[in-house]
Amino acid sequence: MENEYICKEKCPHFNKISEVKLTSPNDDSVIDLADMFKIFADSTRLKIICAIMKEELCVCDLCELLGLNQTTVSHQLKTLRDSKLVKYRRDGKQIFYSLEDDHVTQILSAGLSHISEEAENEQL
Amino acid sequence: MENEYICKEKCPHFNKISEVKLTSPNDDSVIDLADMFKIFADSTRLKIICAIMKEELCVCDLCELLGLNQTTVSHQLKTLRDSKLVKYRRDGKQIFYSLEDDHVTQILSAGLSHISEEAENEQL
DNA sequence: TAAACATATGAACAAATATGCATATAAAAG
DNA sequence: CTTTTATATGCATATTTGTTCATATGTTTA
Q: Least buried of A4, A50, A76, B114, by fewest C-beta within 10 Å?
């Protein structure tokens, strides 16, 4: 049942499928990619990323800026740390966060340009 | 309690915060952006996107290619349709899906280049 | 027009996850 | 060395979401 094709007639299109299989990324890459996009798929984390894009901020700055609970911010910062998207340095009692590299910015701006074009299309 | 600052001393850094507020996208944009990244944050949807990147495929092709339930594929295609990332055309009983525009590809490749650099760094 | 086929949709369930409370850790100040 | 301050973490919970089953819709063919 699992191995039977769903369609009976001219579908599936075997030649198309075999070609796609050749050019598609492997399963592990796709899962890694999805995990990476998951990080960007939350507005709290996105706000944090946008905030520390230009200059480093401490946890407390982020709480104040985003109007969020300190716990919430710290949890999301841990997620960002674990995914290697941010770096941090301690200065006394405070810990300052900043972006790890500019891939983050690139992904973000690719997303933003899609969003903004969508907004344009809706105006028409 | 909500409106009190968490830190008492030299934090928060008001000048930094006010500058960040000026350059950060507004809340609605951030939510839209997060919603958009959510679409990419699932390996099934990513596989579908990669598969129809070069040429259109029907639902059944996708099921066969990805080894997934027809219902699962259709549900994810609906998500992709709703988010305007894919377009489709009917040909008899079959429905062929393809990418709506090349923003999708751009976002994907931005993500992939981050992933691949991460892999390089781990080899060192 | 009835049956077969390709795809879509609704409901239910399980798994993932974002948030907040309580508390732990770590640094500085008194 | 005790207290205060800044941040992190474990746990509980509510919400979201991906998958599947059952079934509906739309198209073709007999």
A: A4
Residue B17, SS3?
Answer: helix
CA distance B39 to B36: 6
Does the distance separating the beta carbons of B103 and A110 come in below 8 Å? yes
Helical (H) or strand (E) element with A110: helix A103-123
How does pLDDT run across B68-89, given as a tens digit for each residue?
999 999 999 999 999 999 999 9
Q: Is the pTM of this model over 0.85?
A: yes
Tokens of B70: 């027809």
State how far the alpha carbon of B63 is from the alpha carbons of A80, A111, B76, in Å.
Answer: 34, 28, 11
Determine the distance between A5 (CA) and D30 (C1') in angstroms: 23
CA distance B98 to chain A (A): 13
Q: B85: Cβ–Cβ under 8 A, 6 or more apart, which residues?
A: B39, B49, B99, B100, B104
- Tokens 């490749």: give the residue: B109
